[in-house]
Amino acid sequence: MNNLTQTFKALSDQNRLRIIVTLMEYDELCACQFTELLGIAGATVSRHLGVLHNAGLVQSRKDGRWIFYSLSNTAASCRPVLDWIREEARSCPEVKEDMARLSKILACNPEEICRKQRTGA
């Protein structure tokens, strides 16, 4: 029962839901891309990703200085819930805005995004 509670607590935040929905559309994204998409501090994004990781919903891999996140293999046990979220998200205007914004973010080099975030430009 604790796993179920932890999963629903992880999904109960709008930014974490946005992360999950985004990862359902894109296999893997860098933490800096989430920071840019969500428009919140990198530390806050890291905290959200940590909550999702602890709930077993996302996994990470490090590649040099980049940390990439994807849906975890264990998230498959939540497949019916994730399918429901995906279906509900399709009609959500905020999700459509996120996807349009993310396509612009993905057109940029992650190095450029990180530099911009570090300098606050």
From TrEMBL:
Keywords from the named record: DNA-binding, Transcription, Transcription regulation
Family annotation (InterPro entries): ArsR-like_HTH, HTH_ArsR_DNA-bd_dom, HTH_MetalResp_TranReg, WH-like_DNA-bd_sf, WH_DNA-bd_sf
SUPFAM superfamilies reported for this sequence: Winged helix' DNA-binding domain
HTH arsR-type domain mapped to chain residues: 1-96
Highest rank taxon of the organism: Bacteria
The keyword Zinc-finger is annotated on this UniProt entry: no
Record NCBIfam families: HTH_metalloreg (NF033788)
Record-given protein name: ArsR family transcriptional regulator
Naturally occurring in which organism (per UniProt): Halodesulfovibrio spirochaetisodalis
Source lineage: Bacteria, Pseudomonadati, Thermodesulfobacteriota, Desulfovibrionia, Desulfovibrionales
